[in-house]
Amino acid sequence: MVISDAFELLATLPDESVDLVITDPPYESLQLHRSRGTTTRLTTNWFTTVPDARLPELLASVYRVLRRDRHFYLFCDEVTADVIKQQQGVGAGRLPNGARPCEAGFVYWKEVLWGKTTLDGARIRGGTGYHYRAASERILFFEKGKRPLIDLGIPDVLLAARSTVTGPAVKPNAVVRTLLLQSSTAGELVVDPFCGTGVVGVEARAHGRRFLLGDIDLAYLDASLAGVAPPGVAKRVADGIDPIAPPDLEELASAADEVREAAEAAGWLEGDAGTPELAELLRIRPREREAAVRRSLRAPPGPEEPPLLRAWRAWALSGRRIS
Predict the structure, then answer these.
(1) Sign of CA pseudo-dihedral 121, 126, 129, 133
(2) 314 in helix, strand or coil?
(3) What is the DSSP letter of 230?
(4) Where are the chain's structural domains?
(5) Which residues are CB-contacts of 153 (< 8 A; sequence separation ≥ 6)?
(6) Residue 19 forms beta bridges with which residues?
(7) d(CA 291, CA 38)
(8) What is the pTM of this model?
(9) Of 165, 220, 306, 307, whose CB neighbour count within 10 A is largest?
């Protein structure tokens, strides 16, 4: 597991060294939803998106590192699916086997759908939008060479509830597990360069696959992966510390002495004045600030820190939200 830009991570891998890629890049169309305020994905967990113009580079990089007769799954929305198909020249023309060739070298098979159910799995949950509610997400299925799926009876609609794990756009373990088991075998190497909470790694390890995960931000890393996290990355909640969310940053200067002491130790206050780090956080809209606050607090607690700051750090690595 590495802290790395996805493109830089892929560039370090040798040709044909990977057996499966499953990933969910932060696609550009999220900016559209963000401007309209129509997606909860962008409220408290905002992150930098990958421009559409770089998607061909992503597919070319994945194609280069994949061994022959391997698969690639890319989670995206309808808008990004259309963009990728246009960029890759995917049209009506098909190969004799029904697949469609891509500019990057893959063949494109189809969109697998993740149908989002209620938590109990009893029904499809209501989604967003006003022209039939969006209750599904696309998973573009690409192939390099020819590799049969493990179970030919699995349908192309995978039903699963949205994950309850804290983090931006977390994918359900059940969906990732199906893709992993369909397209890899024990001992093979699975890569996710936009790993987020690391669900691909969790499922890969549980089923005997090797894995390589990368992301520019590991603030939401699953606790079960703490042992393989890079040095210096905080490991979820420290034992014996009750997580406490920090107060509104706008109110720090007038807060109680205990809060001000913790804020100074965190590097947010110097006396009565805010620091440049606090100013950077305050530039982010409050509804989109939580992920940045978590990143600011994710360093492991020091031995002499105020107890309240240690509680804030524990919150930053927990599943709790700012209320």
Answers:
(1) positive
(2) helix
(3) P
(4) 2-228, 249-316
(5) none
(6) none
(7) 19
(8) 0.75
(9) 220
